[in-house]
Write a structure and sequence with these properties.
Mean pLDDT: 95
Keywords: Amino-acid biosynthesis, Lyase, Pyridoxal phosphate, Threonine biosynthesis
Enzyme class: lyase
CATH class of one domain: Alpha Beta
Family: Belongs to the threonine synthase family.
Largest sheet: 6 strands, mixed
Low-confidence stretches: none
CATH topology of one domain: Rossmann fold
Protein name: Threonine synthase
Pathway: Amino-acid biosynthesis; L-threonine biosynthesis; L-threonine from L-aspartate: step 5/5
Distance between the termini: 28 Å
Amino acid sequence: MRYISTRGTAPVLDFRQVTLAGLASDGGLYLPETWPTFSPEQIAAMRGLSYVDTAVEVMAPFVEGTLGRDDLKALCEQAYGRFSHAAVTPLVQLDGQHWLLELFHGPTLAFKDVALQLLGLLFERFLSGSDKQVTVVGATSGDTGSAAIDALAGRAGVDVFMLHPKGRVSDVQRRQMTTVLAPNIHNIALEGASFDDCQALVKAMFNSPEFSGTFALSAVNSINWARLMAQIVYYFYAAVRLGAPERPVAFSVPTGNFGDVFAGYVAAKMGLPVAKLIVATNVNDILHRALSQGDYSQGSVVPTPSPSMDIQVSSNFERLLFDLGGRDGAALAAQMQGFEASKAMRLTNAQQSGAAGLLRSDRIDLDDMAMAMRWACEGAGQVIDPHTAIGLAAARRADLKDVPIVTLATAHPAKFDDAVERATGMRPALPARVGDLFDREERYASLPGTFAAVTAYIAERAVPSA
């Protein structure tokens, strides 16, 4: 399997290279040169497989030439052996049509663990036996940071610098990052910044020849293809349990950066019968405006009780636009450069019409979010977090007859206990395995949100590449 950049001029890489690289050298994002596909018979054969065995079947084509099936299975067994539920990502039925896919049984209680536990092992595997030191720089709106830090803490050959917007993540999210005191972990709280500001700084570091030429930079954000690859698995795992391939299944995905939705899009390209992918946004609705009106224009970020979705620039949307636009790297590069300059662009007719077949979107405000949390609690006995509630609200508004709709439950409700209590009157408790979180020592740096300040901090602590 070979990987190409959405902007057309970066080198073609194999799976090992693309995992360690993260962002492409031309500023684009990597994705496979072609989509592997499964026949209905191959999908049907996934019924009854464990999560690990499903993961091996789904991911094997993407790692071909780099990892064998036995090696891939061993890595998956290690990654998912840390999850608290034997099914790894269990389905929970809410009513006759609606289901939750619980993605929060990993060590940091969020869906990011599904990919990052594996990514941490891949980094270790690909760096083993070399003297290469990788500098991981990442931006987080809460969950990516804690999941990446848990996965990479103490691993040889990797230093992690994680940026988060100060005061714009929940207390649980912050502490899950800042109480990990491993020497290779560095948390940076950016003052007066949004997640988009953090993400822009990360991209600027990759795109700076001086900085990226000094350090071997890599990424754990969903710009890293390996993360999206791991997320494709749970779409197959859930769908075959609800009747696929004979029966189509719809998914409602709470999203900010579009990575989880794009993983579902890839599953559909691989042959999974996805009836519809519902892109559920909060009031930071750039994706809803893009998909419903063709208007991809950046607004101001509004802080909400669903902070992981408080985003106005969705990195992974570039992958979708590339695939829908005929995979024309030069055209996509010009389109994205125009957006970066003006903070606005129109989707082409091909991009809009291509998205319309599979994707639909909805914008969920605070009242609808709270109503979904109450409905889940009172009607189905399920306490859900604000992000999941946005996905569920969009799912319940979707006019899809005779199709099971799976809402991705992206975080444990205890990560957002204040918001859950306001909506339901119930204050969810942290699971016992992280119950001492608020007794642990914190360590992080507060910095101005400037390129100079952040790169100077990293340069003092990171190991230059040879």
